Amino acid sequence: MANVRVAVRVRPLSKRETKEGGRIIVEVDGKVAKIRNLKVDNRPDGFGDSREKVVAFGFDYCYWSVNPEDPQYASQDMVFQDLGTEVLSGAAKGYNICLFAYGQTGSGKTYTMLGTPGLFIREEDSAPLPSSCRIKVSFLEIYNERVRDLLKQSDQKKSYTLRVREHPEMGPYVQGEPLWSWRSETKLNSGKCWISNNKWKRQSCPHRQAILENNLPSEIASKINLVDLAGSERADPSYCKDRITEGANINKSLVTLGIVISTLAQNSQAFSSCQSLSSAASDGGDSGIPSSPSGTSSGAGPSRKQSYIPYRDSVLTWLLKDSLGGNSKTIMVATVSPSHTCYSETMSTLRYASNAKHIINKPRVNEDANI
Ligand code: ADP
């Protein structure tokens, strides 16, 4: 079992934030990210309680990418060394890996995944793939609850018709999803993986999927899901009032993702408190955490309650089912602005990310090359 690993990355102040007099309210101290509420600082009655002014959250990684002059500055390369390497080495061992970015629009999700250079970038001058390694790639976009194959050059509208189905053993998949084998075009060099296809850089692409297969000699196959979600502000039910259908569907994905994450987190916490109770009482304990919609069960006490996980309520969560509480090693990168003008969004992203830390997955090495 493995917890979802969570990284937070703070980007530089944008030009607009600087122009608006944005003050830096986020700081990073080792694996702790702290956020300051200036409104508490500035209470007119002067009775601000210093304990309320700063809220601290612990993560697996915290990256301070605000100012390159700063000694603790985390460059794209440093982020790659931690996360990109973890993704690729995990996949090479045969695990399914999911790396997803979460944060408000403009907070640096795309920059981190695909930027200059991103974790997964296109690059021309690289070493050829080792002969034992074959990479198959598919890119999917989930927008408005519909799935589109980004590799299809032709009729854009028609390609929004792919359906998500579920294989009894392999889990959810996109029907008719073509797998592109890019033995010659795809390069692997010092652990970096990149794709020679300009479709990769689409801004509005909330879901990208790559499949890395290593057929020789052990016939291990693994999936890498790279997911660049729609801006987290769209999880707010009041967002997109004017674009009701589109807004509602985007909300549906992100709201459902939020519910799935917090339910899994609660179940995982219930499970761990249940385990410590049961080991103290030596009574055997519960069987584990539900990883599928079948999981409604309850035990003797409130800490044993396991809630239904609504994976199927949105296309996004259904496709990510394995990555959230299932057979996957999952990394979440939460991206935030350092500016006081983004206080609410940053606070909500940090809370969301902090919740995700409690999700426990059950990754296993895939031994079937037909994944
Ligand atoms: P998102 O994908 O979350 O909407 P972007 O990745 O497009 O946000 O980032 C918004 C802007 O901020 C871009 O101009 C990007 O270059 C810049 N940016 C984001 N993160 C960083 C970073 N870590 N360092 C430098 N610039 C960044």
What key attributes describe this structure?
371 residues; alpha+beta; Kinesin; eight-stranded mixed beta sheet; three-stranded antiparallel beta sheet; globular; binds adenosine-5'-diphosphate
The total count of strands amounts to: 19
Global structural class: alpha+beta
Share of residues in strands: 15-25%
CATH fold title: Kinesin
**CATH hierarchy: architecture:** 3-Layer(aba) Sandwich
Task: Give the helix proportion (percent range).
Answer: 25-40%
CATH top-level class: Alpha Beta
Domain unit count:
1
The run of helices and strands is EEHEEHHEEHEHEEEEEEEEEEHHEHE
The small-molecule ligands in this entry are: adenosine-5'-diphosphate
Radius of gyration: 21 Å
Q: How would you sum up the major sheet?
A: 8 strands, mixed
Strand order of the largest sheet: 6-2-18-7-17-16-8-13
